[in-house]
Design goal:
alpha+beta; SH3 type barrels; five-stranded antiparallel beta sheet; 35% strand; globular
Length: 79
């Protein structure tokens, strides 16, 4: 299941990231923020308009904004 389709406020573990789908600089930024295989994450907020963009993602003690297109490249499993 991709991060985009995961439930709000439920914990998940990133099992794979399709880095080829992301631009190189975007991938580097996400890795620097800790978005990588094995990280535990949770969606804490979604945009309210039709695209539901952006997502607020909690990773560790940090909350980051993530585009829906990036969330589609991240495979997760529930914890």
């Amino acid at each position: 299941m991709t991060l985009d389709g995961f439930e709000h406020d439920k914990a998940a573990r990133i099992v794979a990231v399709d880095w080829a789908v992301l631009a190189e600089d975007e991938g580097k930024r996400l890795k620097a923020l800790g978005v990588d295989e094995g990280a535990e994450v949770a969606i804490v907020h979604r945009g309210v308009f039709g695209t539901r963009d952006p997502l607020a993602l909690r990773i560790g003690r940090m909350t980051i904004a993530l585009r829906r297109a990036h969330a589609l490249a991240i495979e997760v499993e529930p914890l």
